[in-house]
Design a protein that fits this description.
alpha/beta, 4-stranded parallel β-sheet, Rossmann fold
Length: about 280
């Protein structure tokens, strides 16, 4: 009953939809924070996600400190900022999306971010929605220039066979942001080559047959020691030889244009001769 009363109160406080670009935008996820900060006028941002200021998850944590943040990722926290537009991702909890829709607030859910082309589509959509299509196109042009320059630098390299390593019992196959990272950094994702799609349980007994030359993991604390406790990684020749590349977690998992930083960092680690 209290939850219903609170929701009704928030509905009453929520503004009516106005014509023209939104002026009170709330971002519900870290990925939408990244896109919103890149395209919006500062005055259009009402609040960013509850994890937006946490550098463990967000590559724009420093920039996010200039704005209010959600107390939680639930609908009540979002609606308390009286948004006229809410940005969410397809992995947002379904019950949260349902409550936001019931509130009648304009909701933009981004659901494709596996590739850089998906990111460009998101930037264009958000740029149009915010009233800044030219800003979105300028950012896309900058991204394309960086990606083209990296591709030229890596032209003719022998791709390095890599495996996404994690303390969790999953690895990344085709159709993932890790595959996109490999596609731009001169690497072959051995899990995808073996037929894995999406994030799948790590096939312990098959890892040795994949001939991974380098393991790639995010740089969370004591990651080398934690991976060494997992037999499926500890026995790999690449791990035993110390061939482990660590990348900032927020960049490895980025669903925005910031993933290009990860392309460049991984490419530099795998092909240092091309960056002399």
């Amino acid at each position: 009953m209290r939850r219903l009363w609170l929701l009704l109160l928030l509905l009453a406080l929520s503004p009516l939809r106005a014509a023209g670009p939104p002026q009170r935008v709330v971002s519900q996820a870290v990925g939408t924070d990244e896109l919103l900060l890149a395209l919006a006028d500062p005055g259009q941002i009402a609040a960013l996600s509850n994890l937006g200021r946490d550098a463990r998850y967000s590559p724009v944590a420093g920039e996010a400190k200039a704005y209010p943040t959600l107390k939680d990722s639930d609908a009540e926290s979002v609606l308390s900022h009286r948004p006229d537009l809410v940005l969410a991702a397809s992995f947002t909890r379904p019950e949260t999306l349902a409550l936001l829709r019931r509130a009648g607030v304009r909701l933009l859910v981004l659901d494709r971010f596996d590739t850089l082309e998906d990111v460009y589509a998101d930037l264009r959509l958000l740029g149009q929605t915010l009233g800044h299509p030219g800003r979105a196109e300028a950012l896309i042009a900058q991204c394309r220039a960086r990606v083209d320059a990296l591709a030229q630098r890596l032209k003719g390299v022998r791709p390095v066979r890599v495996l996404a390593a994690s303390i969790y019992p999953f690895t990344a196959g085709a159709g993932t942001t890790f595959q996109d990272l490999c596609d731009h950094a001169g690497a072959i994702n051995v899990a995808a080559e073996a037929g894995l799609k999406g994030h799948q349980p790590t096939p312990t007994e098959r890892l040795l047959t994949w001939n991974a030359e380098v393991l790639v993991a995010d740089d969370e604390p004591a990651i080398r020691e934690r991976l060494a406790q997992i037999p499926s990684y500890r026995l790999l020749p690449a791990f035993r030889a110390g061939r482990l590349v660590l990348l900032p977690g927020p960049l490895m998992s980025s669903v925005s244009h910031h993933r290009i930083d990860a392309y460049e960092q991984l490419a530099r680690a795998l092909h240092p001769d091309r960056f002399k």
